[in-house]
Amino acid sequence: MTDVDLASRLVGGSVVAASDESFGFKERLVDPAEPAFVPGTFDLRGEVVDGWETRRHAGRAGDWAIIRLGTPGRLRTIDVDTRFFSGNHPSGCAVDACVLARTDDPTDPAVAWTPILEPTVLKADSHNLLAVADRRRWTHLRLRLQSDGGVARLRAYGDVVPDPASWSDVTVEVSGLENGGRVEWCSDSFYSSATSLILPNRPHNMGDGWEARRRRDVGPDTHDAVIVSFAAPADLRRIEVDTSYFVFNASLEVSVLGSRSRPDREHGWGMVAFDVPVLPRTRLLADARQVFAVDVPDVAALRVQAYPDGGIARVRAIGVSTVDGLRMLQHNWEESS
């Protein structure tokens, strides 16, 4: 599955400062929705744009915007998306990163910014996918334009690196995207992405969930499935299955299996055994949040099976990290510093 967009507002990302936003608001950079544009639509600022756009003639220093990531993490790819900006896109950009406390001022001149992307020419009206080689953990990004212009979205794809202190001696939503949960595989994503299952917010409509196509080969054990991995093994205490807004097309039943293993370097998740019963096959209510108490130790990943097809909005696995899990989190935290 795809990496997490650590800058997205869905996980708490925010644009905290910008040099200018005369034509387009800086906050649109982290909007999870795809950019859109209706030609000929004007307001008092000019033609309405779905992105961040600065005034003309920024000068030799160019414009800049600072993004606070929703959760600290390692970055793999940054997408500087200039869709619908053709005659007004920036000539190029560079990206810097830093690690700050939540209350630190990222505009302070004393902040030590580290370049993670050297100056790069940007294409107009395009995804500009830029690979990040630096594998350290970051909390903030600074997008530096080499000119003025407009950027529709800034996506920062990578891996969440949970702070071990936030897992110690507390119950955690170990499947949650904010805590390092990942959708590793799903059987079908015809209508919507399975990544919606582990988002931190409550669903707000039927499109904000995982919905598979209608199966026509229905038998006693016909099902769709999704695999969700955790940042670290945990002792599970509760499973929540939320079918909110799926009124006429919710999955009829669900079962959950756990694994105490992870893929090795040669094999993927298809070779991992999910042989730990977590939740037996259980009837689901439509358009309802359902909570099931469980007591299953040392689980590293889940396989959620939905019978026979249909839609589920959210799946949440709640638990307490194992001792080995905390050691793993601590190691990852220190290794990424």
Descriptive notes:
The chain is 4% helix and 42% strand. It contains one helix and 21 strands. The chain has one helix at residues 323-335, and strands at 4-5, 14-18, 42-43, 46-47, 52-53, 64-81, 92-98, 114-121, 127-131, 137-145, 150-151, 153-160, 172-173, 182-186, 210-211, 224-242, 253-259, 276-283, 289-307, 311-312, 314-321. It starts with a strand and ends with a helix.
Write the layout of secondary structure elements.
Elements (H helix, E strand, L loop, with lengths): L3 E2 L8 E5 L23 E2 L2 E2 L4 E2 L10 E18 L10 E7 L15 E8 L5 E5 L5 E9 L4 E2 L1 E8 L11 E2 L8 E5 L23 E2 L12 E19 L10 E7 L16 E8 L5 E19 L3 E2 L1 E8 L1 H13 L2
Antiparallel strand pairs: 1-12, 2-6, 3-4, 5-11, 6-9, 6-10, 6-12, 7-8, 7-10, 13-21, 14-16, 15-20, 16-19, 16-21, 17-18, 17-19
List its salient traits.
42% strand; 337 residues; eight-stranded antiparallel beta sheet; 1 helix; 21 strands; seven-stranded antiparallel beta sheet; 4% helix; mainly beta; single chain; globular
Structure described in brief:
It is an enzyme of class 3 (hydrolase). The protein is mainly beta.
Supply the number of helical segments: 1
Low-confidence stretches: none
| Main sheet overview | 8 strands, antiparallel
Mean pLDDT: 96
Which sequence of SSEs, written as H and E, runs from N to C?
EEEEEEEEEEEEEEEEEEEEEH
C-alpha geometry: globular
User: What class do helices, strands and sheet pairing give?
Assistant: mainly beta
End-to-end distance: 26 Å
In which range does the helix fraction lie?
Answer: under 10%
Radius of gyration (CA) equals 22 Å
How much of the residues is beta strand, in percent? 35-45%
Give the strand tally: 21
